[in-house]
Specification:
The complex is a heterodimer of chains A (220) and B (118).
Chain A lengths: L1 E7 L2 H16 L3 E7 L5 H12 L5 E7 L4 H7 L4 E6 L8 H8 L9 E5 L16 E7 L6 H4 L1 H6 L2 E5 L11 H11 L4 E4 L8 H15 L4
Parallel strand pairs in A: 2-5, 2-6, 3-4, 3-5, 6-7, 7-8
Helix pairs in contact in A: 1-4
Chain B lengths: L1 H16 L2 E12 L6 H11 L9 E7 L2 E3 L6 E3 L18 E4 L3 E10 L5
Parallel strand pairs in B: 1-2
Antiparallel strand pairs in B: 1-6, 3-4, 3-5
The chains are: A alpha/beta (220), B alpha+beta (118).
């Protein structure tokens, strides 16, 4: 016998992501899904962002790593509430993991929750977690061909942070080509060129983030 | 691996619903833009399906091409290269909309139930 099924393979994850989203919306927390390859600077961006926001907004972080709680400890030192998820080999976070992490997270009074995904430009793009925006980081040392090689990530993100621009004199990377290729895949993509090391460009990123936080809280 | 696990869950759920004892074939559609490598999915599925009614099932993966619609002329065209443009209008600043290419769907399953005599 042949049985027609026609069911989305990611249906369970989709359903859970919508449930997560309802919880986030009820608590008026802005949620970002932060993605990049390993070493592009996700944790450094979070450290810098936490420093910039600390007087005005409360930030919390869910850290996804295959192993270790190194990153969560880095953020806890900055006074950020951080919960670690170890995926035990899985190359991405899914909505169920987020839901379990939320049990050990105090969301009351939190303005922005950042979910730091596992370092990987492929699979995390397929799994919605209930976030409001996806943010991708690409460091200039990785090369300007990445938007072409991993198009989905760039297509579905709201923001692209091009990190480590202080290294531009030392690497063969055409910043203009990154912008052009990423915009061709996603014309509404917001792109900020930044350096966590020198602080260059971070103001514009923080301004974008604060505007989204205020939006979420219906503040002017 | 998570995707293979999800495929298996759908298949086993449908098996119970239709009282299927053995699954012979699973037909799956995967968009060319989805982050799925067919060989990897097939391998992972074999691993997760062991000991279930689907353990000997063939996974038939059909790749769905990436089809875009041009916002200017409305033309639908297949995108082979990520940076292909509309054949009529060339580069379009306002963006192309994706019609297909991100699917991940279990389309049908084939198998035998207890009263099939097989």
């Amino acid at each position: 016998m042949k049985v027609p099924v026609v069911r989305n393979i990611l249906e369970v994850n989709e359903r859970l992501s919508q449930e997560n989203r309802k919880i986030f919306d009820a608590k008026k927390v802005l949620v970002l899904n932060l993605m990049s390859s390993p070493g592009a600077g996700k944790t450094s961006v979070l450290e810098r962002t936490a420093e910039a926001l600390q007087d005005r907004y409360k930030m919390a972080v869910i850290e996804g790593d295959i192993q270790s709680s190194f990153d969560a400890e880095r953020l806890q030192r900055k006074g950020v509430q951080a919960v670690q998820i170890n995926t035990d080999g899985a190359c991405h976070l899914d909505s169920n993991m987020i839901r379990m992490a939320m049990d050990s997270l105090q969301l009351e009074g939190v303005d922005v929750l950042v979910i730091e995904n596992v370092g990987n430009l492929v699979c995390p793009a397929e799994f919605n977690l209930g976030e409001h925006h996806k943010v991708t980081i690409l460091s200039v040392a990785e090369g300007d061909d990445k938007p072409i090689k991993y198009p989905l990530m760039f297509q579905i993100s709201s923001v692209l942070l091009v990190n480590k621009v202080d290294l531009l004199p030392y690497v063969d990377c055409d910043l203009h080509a990154i912008h052009q290729r990423a915009r061709q895949l996603n014309p509404t993509l917001e792109i900020f060129d930044i350096s966590c090391r020198t602080g260059e460009g971070l103001e514009a990123w923080i301004a974008w983030l604060e505007a989204r936080i205020r939006e979420r809280k219906n503040l002017p | 691996m998570a995707i293979a696990q999800s495929v298996l869950e759908i298949v086993l759920d449908e098996c119970r619903r239709h009282r299927m004892k053995t699954v012979d074939r699973i037909n799956v559609q995967v968009g060319a833009l989805a982050a799925v490598v067919p060989e990897a999915l097939t391998f992972c599925f074999q691993v997760v399906a062991q000991g279930t009614p689907a353990e000997n099932a063939a996974l038939d993966i059909e790749t769905v091409p990436v089809v875009m619609r041009c916002p200017l002329c409305g033309e639908l065209f297949e995108m082979e290269d990520r940076l292909d443009m509309c054949p009529q209008c060339g580069p379009v600043v306002s963006g192309l909309s994706l019609i297909s290419g991100r699917e991940m769907t279990v389309m049908s399953i084939e198998g035998r139930g207890s009263d099939d005599g097989a």
